[in-house]
Amino acid sequence: MPTKPPEAQSTILIIDDSVDAIRLLSGILKDMGQILFATSGAAGIELAQQRRPQLILLDVEMQAMDGYEVCRRIKADSDMRDCAIMFVTAQSTMDSEVAALEAGAVDFLSKPLNAPVVRARVRTHLKLQRATAALMQLANKDGLTGLFNRRYFDEQLAREFLRHKRQGLPLSLAFIDIDCFKAYNDHYGHQSGDACLKRVAELIEGATQRPSEVVARYGGEEFVVLLPYTDAADAAKYGAWLCEQIAVDALAHARSPVAAHITVSVGLTSMVPGEANSALNLVADADRALYQAKSAGRNRAVTATPL
């Protein structure tokens, strides 16, 4: 099967209260990505929150909420601020163009639309979005394991905590520590230690299936997994499954008092974010559960109990 061009893998959101305008733009861009549309500013913001498109084509003159206000709200939301926004409007004055850019737009398309110009500008901004995303991926990855790094995890935890707080849904966290890793390093050497870290990272990533989950190297031999929309019962199942997968891999550890192979300890916690707690509480609870798992003999998953 032929591979789709890179731009065809993008998501483009059209926000316009004119159905005819949506049809026209959809026709011009139909082969350039997945096309979504909304016929009001409020609906467009909600859809952008759900789908996080790479590019938004936004009409200025809409009822109830104009394009400038929609743009400002999108750019003020940490979940959506990376979306590129192009205004589409019949206004062509310098003042209107400046207003669009000041609101946070990256470009300005004037009506009546010229199809080749629209396609060229959209293609340019999709390329820029892909290049920016690639650079961010490099900046957010751990150099040894290829997992996300601590900085990226902290950012995602803050975002997901606020999202789950708005939605009133459970968010879970797992701290994972390789048991007796110093003894492994001392016995096998640092190169083998690095290979062990990479292998455990692969196993954790392979056992963590949902696209919304974030797997990161927290530091040293410690890893962390963010589990959106996961309650305590499902988090506990995930922790037990993870211990099992790493044990089954049977990477030899001759100096471990726990087993003849590499094992991990997992600390888990789950909460519905609210005014009475914070992301720091989630981290502290998972860390406490990890300590309990180690104290109980390692090679196990423990879920934090309320203090």
Automatic annotation (TrEMBL):
<dbReference type="GO" id="GO:0052621">
    <property type="term" value="F:diguanylate cyclase activity"/>
</dbReference>
<dbReference type="InterPro" id="IPR011006">
    <property type="entry name" value="CheY-like_superfamily"/>
</dbReference>
<protein>
    <recommendedName>
        <fullName>diguanylate cyclase</fullName>
        <ecNumber>2.7.7.65</ecNumber>
    </recommendedName>
</protein>
<feature type="modified residue" description="4-aspartylphosphate">
    <location>
        <position position="59"/>
    </location>
</feature>
<keyword id="KW-0548">Nucleotidyltransferase</keyword>
<keyword id="KW-0808">Transferase</keyword>
<dbReference type="InterPro" id="IPR000160">
    <property type="entry name" value="GGDEF_dom"/>
</dbReference>
<dbReference type="InterPro" id="IPR029787">
    <property type="entry name" value="Nucleotide_cyclase"/>
</dbReference>
<dbReference type="InterPro" id="IPR043128">
    <property type="entry name" value="Rev_trsase/Diguanyl_cyclase"/>
</dbReference>
<feature type="domain" description="Response regulatory">
    <location>
        <begin position="11"/>
        <end position="126"/>
    </location>
</feature>
<feature type="domain" description="GGDEF">
    <location>
        <begin position="169"/>
        <end position="306"/>
    </location>
</feature>
<dbReference type="Pfam" id="PF00990">
    <property type="entry name" value="GGDEF"/>
</dbReference>
<dbReference type="InterPro" id="IPR050469">
    <property type="entry name" value="Diguanylate_Cyclase"/>
</dbReference>
<keyword id="KW-0597">Phosphoprotein</keyword>
<dbReference type="Pfam" id="PF00072">
    <property type="entry name" value="Response_reg"/>
</dbReference>
<dbReference type="InterPro" id="IPR001789">
    <property type="entry name" value="Sig_transdc_resp-reg_receiver"/>
</dbReference>
